[in-house]
Inverse folding.
């Protein structure tokens, strides 16, 4: 169980649990999920998290899976688009330009966030 504490919760839930029956049972261990929850929401009081956990069938794993949180093992991005009107030259029609850019966000376990704006489209993306 102590080795599982060093894995991401996503790996614990998706890949490790499918290796064998023993790993499946160990991946559902309540103390393991309690530590993951306390590490994920370290700025919130323990009694608040415990109250939330009790309302979800007394299961720390359910609390982790149902409560919103940013993932820290990847990058979020969104595509932004807007229209910009150009300048006229004489009697010609107004030129219109469509501007497309991408905003990238990377969240870290310690609470830091890196933000980047770029005109480069991501090479590969996985939708959840």
């Amino acid at each position: 169980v102590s080795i599982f504490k060093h894995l991401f919760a996503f790996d614990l839930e998706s890949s490790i649990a499918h290796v064998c029956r023993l790993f499946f049972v160990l991946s559902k261990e309540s103390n393991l999920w309690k530590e993951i929850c306390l590490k994920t929401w370290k700025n919130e009081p323990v009694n608040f998290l415990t109250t939330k956990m009790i309302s979800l069938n007394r299961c720390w794993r359910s609390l982790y899976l149902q409560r919103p949180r940013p993932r820290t093992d990847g990058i979020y991005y969104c595509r932004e688009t807007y229209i910009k009107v150009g300048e006229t030259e004489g009697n010609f029609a107004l030129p219109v330009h469509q501007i497309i850019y991408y905003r990238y966000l990377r969240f870290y376990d310690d609470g830091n966030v890196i933000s980047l704006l770029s005109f480069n489209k991501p090479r590969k993306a996985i939708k959840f």
